[in-house]
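Lab channel / #folding
Pinned by the channel admin:
"Please post every new chain as: sequence first, then the structure tokens as a reply. Keep commentary short and put observations after the output so the thread stays searchable."

First post following the new format, from NK:
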Amino acid sequence: MAKRTRSTKKRVVKVEAIGKAFVKASFNNIIISLTNNSGQVISWSSSGKMGFRGSKKNTPYAAQMAAQDCSKVAYDLGLRKVKVYVKGPGAGRESAMRTIHSSGIEVTEIIDVTPMPHNGCRPPKRRRV
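Reply from TO:
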């Protein structure tokens, strides 16, 4: 018996003019998500998605390219103002925020949500390069 093919319907996200931008900058990658106020993702991008590999993924230029790609899609859908939530110690934090602002989306607030341990877990051993 032949399998039934289901047509998958893409979920439509409601885009308001005001939203949130999440920039996660780790030591290995940069992930940027633009959401509406309820947290539904409008557009996202990462430096890996832009074609950067290895150590080039955590550069300010890679963050700039990812932010440009992400904010262009969101701007076309109608996003105009964002609060930026930055997480992590990576190199491309600032350049991602600047690029979002220069693409036409106004940055109203910048909030650092990097998790800080209160003497919790034992840290990983020191890196030898």
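NK: The two ends are 59 Å apart (CA to CA).
TO: also worth noting, The chain has one domain: 18-112.
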